[in-house]
Design goal:
8-stranded mixed sheet, single chain, 21% strand, 3-stranded antiparallel sheet, TIM Barrel, 11 strands, alpha/beta
Length: 258
C-alpha cells in the first residue's frame, strides 16, 4: 500500500533514523510531486498520483506548523526533529526559502532544542534560494544511491535529461561536509533488468564518492514499506552493516536502518 500524507503537518512519528519527528508536507495532499520517480518510493510512481491540487502557500504552512508546535508545547511533548519530506521533493515548492525561514523562527520559539531536517534528492541545489535555505537547516539530508549514472537513473529515475552523478557530487561538495548523505541499498528487477547497488563494484565506487564528500553522517538503509516496483528486495542487514563498517573506516559516522 502506498503512503500519501494528507496534511501539511503530520505526526509526530518515530523515525527509524531521526527519533521523534514532526513531518511537514509542502506538496499536494492528494498526490505526488517529485523530480525523481524512485522505484522504491513509498508514495508510489509519479504517474499514478498526478493531481491538480495547489501547493499549500507559505502562510498556510506557517499557521499549520505554529498551531501544531503550540499544541505539542502545551502537552509537554518531546520533539527531536521537524522533518520536511511528504509527498515528493520539498525543495520544489516556490516559497521553500521563506518557509524554512519561518520554520527556524517557530522552532526557536517553541522547541529550541529540536533540529530541522530536509530530505532532498538534491536536484534543485543549482537554484541559489534552495541552496541558501538548505545551508540554514540543521540537517540537509541529500540522496546518493549510486556512483554510476546508469544505476542512479534506473533506481531514482530523475526527470532531468542532464542528470549526472558527478553534477550531484559537485553540488553536495559545496556543503563542505556539513550535510548528511542518505543512500538506499536494494536488489531485484525492474522492467526486465537486474537492479542491485550492493555489488562490490557499486559499493566500492560509492565509497570513493563518500571519501571525497566527507559528510558528517551517512544514512544507510533499505526498503521498509511496499514499493511501486514489485520485484524489489531488501538488502540484508549484514550487507548494510558491512557497508557501514567500511564507511566507518573513513572516520565517518553512520546510521543503519534495515
Amino acid at each position: 500500500m502506498t503512503i500519501l500524507f494528507h496534511e501539511i503537518v503530520y505526526g509526530p512519528v518515530h523515525s527509524r533514523r531521526m527519533g521523534t519527528s514532526l513531518g511537514v508536507n509542502l506538496l499536494p495532499y492528494d498526490g505526488k510531486l517529485c523530480s525523481f520517480d524512485c522505484i522504491y518510493c513509498e508514495c508510489g510512481f509519479n504517474r499514478d498520483f498526478r493531481t491538480k491540487t495547489k501547493l499549500p502557500d507559505r502562510d498556510n504552512v506557517r499557521a499549520a506548523l505554529q498551531d501544531k508546535l503550540q499544541s505539542l508545547q502545551d502537552e509537554g511533548a518531546k520533539l527531536d526533529v521537524i522533518t520536511f519530506a511528504g509527498n515528493g521533493e520539498p525543495t520544489m515548492h516556490p516559497e521553500f526559502e521563506g518557509i524554512i525561514g519561518d520554520t527556524l523562527q517557530l522552532r526557536d520559539r517553541y522547541f529550541p532544542q529540536s533540529r530541522i531536517s530536509v530530505l532532498s534528492n538534491g536536484l534543485h541545489l543549482n537554484k541559489k534560494e534552495v541552496f541558501d535555505a538548505m545551508k540554514k537547516v540543521d540537517n540537509p539530508i541529500l540522496k546518493l544511491d549510486s556512483a554510476f549514472d546508469e544505476t542512479a537513473r534506473r533506481i531514482d529515475r530523475p526527470n532531468a535529461a542532464t542528470y549526472s552523478v558527478n553534477q550531484q557530487v559537485e553540488r553536495y561538495s559545496l556543503f563542505e561536509g556539513d550535510f548528511i548523505l542518505q543512500s538506499m541499498f536494494l536488489r531485484g528487477r525492474f522492467e526486465g533488468s537486474v537492479v542491485d547497488n550492493t555489488t562490490e563494484e557499486e559499493v566500492s565506487a560509492w565509497l570513493q564518492l563518500v571519501r571525497a564528500l566527507r559528510p558528517r553522517e551517512v544514512m544507510i538503509y533499505t526498503i521498509d514499506r511496499e514499493t511501486p516496483a514489485r520485484e524489489l528486495e531488501k538488502a540484508p542487514l549484514e550487507v548494510l552493516r558491512e557497508i557501514a563498517r567500511r564507511v566507518g573506516e573513513l572516520g565517518i559516522q553512520t546510521n543503519v536502518a534495515g
